[in-house]
Amino acid sequence: MHWGHTVSRDLVHWEHLPVALAPSTEDDADGCFSGSAIEVNGKLVAMYTGNVWTGPDHDTDLKQVQMIAESSDGIHFTKRKEPVIQEAPQGDIHPYHFRDPKVWEHNGTYYCVLGSRTKDHQGQVLLYKSDDLLNWTFMAVSAKKDENGGFMWECPDFFHLGDHDVLVMSPQGVKPEGEKFHNLHQAVYVLGKLDYETGTFAHGDFQMLDAGFDFYAPQTLEDPEGRRVMIGWMDMWESQMPTQEHGFSGAMTIPRVLLPDGDRLLVQPLPELAELRKEAVQYENEAVSAKRTFDSINGTCLEMKVEVNIQNANAFHIKFRCGNGERTVLSWVKQDGAVTLDRTKSGAGVSGTRTVKVKADNDLLTFHLFLDQSSAEIFINDGEAVMTARIYPGEKSDDIEFEADGEAVIERLEKWELHSAFSPKGGM
Description:
By secondary structure, the protein is mostly beta strands.
């Protein structure tokens, strides 16, 4: 495992840079696993997990340590020779599985959370502190969950937002509960309060960051405007993506802004993504009952916003990437009070459905879609829910259809083609 590297000045326009970290020492010989970076006195300091396989079983035959690499130009990194955390702490902490450090500074002290599990395989997060990023002191098992918490918590992130401290993590082994937790592994957050003296984090229950298929290991940053911006891995462990035979399958999501909303977070697309728009098409006050299509509302790489009144509808469907028997279907059903994303006929490889409960205040629903070849990112009701999926239809499957049981009225329909995010503007 390597650290790829892209750079942006605005989180909209990006430039590829050379690989930042690659296995090169005896402590990271089999992978520079996940971690984070922080700016200190004009230098970029990356903290990451060095991984070594000690045998054929990747669950039991491994050694993990936490390492530091520094860069004065943000591109070329020099690794510290010795790990800064050599081994997992004593106690009910699995000696092999502790990884993915996320670092932040609070009142002049550095802290990091690490993903972990107990010796009998229950997920948990560890908290460390340091004055210099080199000498770390274990504080506590900061967070864990007794019931249905999974066997391992990966890729933790920690920050303060609104009235809450927020812990984001990707728990493995969580069992389904109703419509929730149907992916192989999850991406969730909990709200609470961190005691910086004891290191313990009193928190609520898991809440999902994404109700779709392909969203894992998200990490956040605070931008210059003070917004908390999140990007996730748009894939899922063990999913059979058709592009694997070409040597790749993963992708990253668009940047998403997290907003506090009482005892939950809203997740919205970064507003500046509007800079990528071109060739706008718009319709207003269009009734939908039987199947309807609209001129120029189609494509494979686009942004689309749909505001629909469902007062007289029992169901409303948006079907995209349609053609040659293929389609991906986004459906709201009044009886269920829920939206379902169905990719059983979306094309090659992956399949299945996911469902999330949503509210229809004043009989209105909003859907904000970003489609890009094999990806679909769908924001519902201004961030009340998000559904992410990888799909693999044929390249000619580019139609979009609307349909209702009863009558729905699309009060506003907007669609834009999109410029490439990897363009000269932005970057270094």
